[in-house]
From TrEMBL:
Residues 32-52 are annotated as: Disordered. Coiled coil: none annotated. Residues 117-252 form the Right handed beta helix domain. Residues 32-50 have a biased composition (Gly residues). This is Sheath polysaccharide-degrading enzyme. It holds the Pfam family Beta_helix. InterPro entries: Beta_helix (IPR039448), PbH1 (IPR006626), Pectin_lyas_fold (IPR012334), Pectin_lyase_fold/virulence (IPR011050).
Amino acid sequence: MLIRRRTALSTVALAGIGAVIAVGTVAVGAPSGTGHGPENGPWSGPGNGTGPAEVIEVSDAAGLKDALGSAQAGDTIQLADGTYEGNFETTASGSGSAPITLTGSADAVLTAGGGYGLHLDGASHWKLEGFTVTGGQKGIMMDAANGVHIDSVTVHGLDMEGVHFRESSSDGSITNSTIYDTGNDGRGMGEGVYVGSAGGTDDKSDRILIEGNTLGPDIRGENIDIKEGTTGARIVGNTFDGNGLTGANYDDSWVDIKGNDVLVENNTGKNTTNDGYQTHDAQDGWGCDTVFRGNKSDLNGASGPDRFAINVTNYDEQDCPVTVTGDNTVTGGKGLTNPGVPVGD
């Protein structure tokens, strides 16, 4: 089921006051499976600058698929509580000033039996808020989708990774969200948040903000994996729980950084098999210029060969600098960082 509600805003100048009055909400019902069609009157939405946005209320999988296919810039898709079974995809884009919003409570659950739970394929400028994604191979996937901002979602129960910014999906974010129980196929490919692609530097998924999230337990890959080719990720104020790391594919830390110019600040972690954070040079000139600041690491119980809070495997003062400040702290393990890496103020 799908219901569309148009919302228009206009301004009225009142003499001597200059007040702004918001006017107009008209409820328009539409059966599931319809688009911006003649039953709703002439339509030219904010994507081309002339029409009102819509609030599109959906309560079943068919309605959600229709809404994802027909949404235009400025629209809001409102999920009713309930289960939405299937694989959901959109290629529609909003704009920087009028993103498309998909929102619902944690009791609005997208569940898939395989494939991707929610796939934004070339679909830029979206806000994804509040709902849950579970089941399937992967959770929320962005491919060539810029300006996608994810907030307060729950992602769990997946064969592979939870949230993936891929194919040069830049200027996005995931904030205030919960990810756990990923990588259930046993191959160690269950990262919580994955930025970029392995095996080259063509994927420029740059400037991704990962802030205020709760990651783990039972994330079988790293909680966060930042790949070579990507630049400017910010990992801030997250809580990591590495209980469940498999060690497959060298998954033995909360965060693995192979991109450049990454900020890692004010995070808290516990339960790791080896290190807290690692940097690597999977490609020449990558894995450099990371800044670690204000992180708290609990390495008690770690049994790997290194056991450093911050293991900079590729440090070179001139060619590949990394900054570790003195306000990072660690309990357990062998120490804050590996020998040869300076700790500054």
